[in-house]
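stage 2 :: seqdesign
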């Protein structure tokens, strides 16, 4: 059963508490690439203030859920559908920035 804090979390942004511990160091950047593409990262597990509605077919939703369960079963990665979609979008955008016309997303959209 969830705790009360999980059920009644604040919806407005809360100021960060003062901390006496030093901030975690930034992850090292890939020295082989210094362009925007190598720095593109999905937002991960943070509170998201923006919302976008996407309509999918029943088969697409089934495939997404199947992928989520496969990630959990085969790779021990427990992710929700939103995080899975954000990761996929980050991959597609990085590929577009890096490869442009030859990117997978451009090729697939041209076929549609």
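stage 2 :: out
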């Amino acid at each position: 059963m969830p705790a009360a804090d999980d059920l009644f979390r604040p919806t407005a942004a809360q100021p960060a508490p003062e901390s006496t511990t030093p901030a975690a160091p930034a992850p090292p950047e890939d020295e082989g690439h210094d362009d925007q593409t190598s720095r593109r990262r999905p937002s991960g597990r943070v509170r998201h203030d923006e919302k976008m509605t996407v309509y999918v077919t029943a088969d697409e939703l089934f495939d997404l859920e199947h992928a989520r369960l496969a990630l959990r079963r085969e790779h021990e990665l427990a992710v929700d559908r939103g995080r899975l979609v954000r990761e996929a979008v980050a991959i597609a955008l990085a590929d577009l920035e890096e490869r442009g016309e030859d990117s997978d997303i451009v090729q697939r959209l041209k076929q549609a």
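stage 3 :: structure notes
- The chain has a mean pLDDT of 77.
- The longest helix spans residues 81-99.
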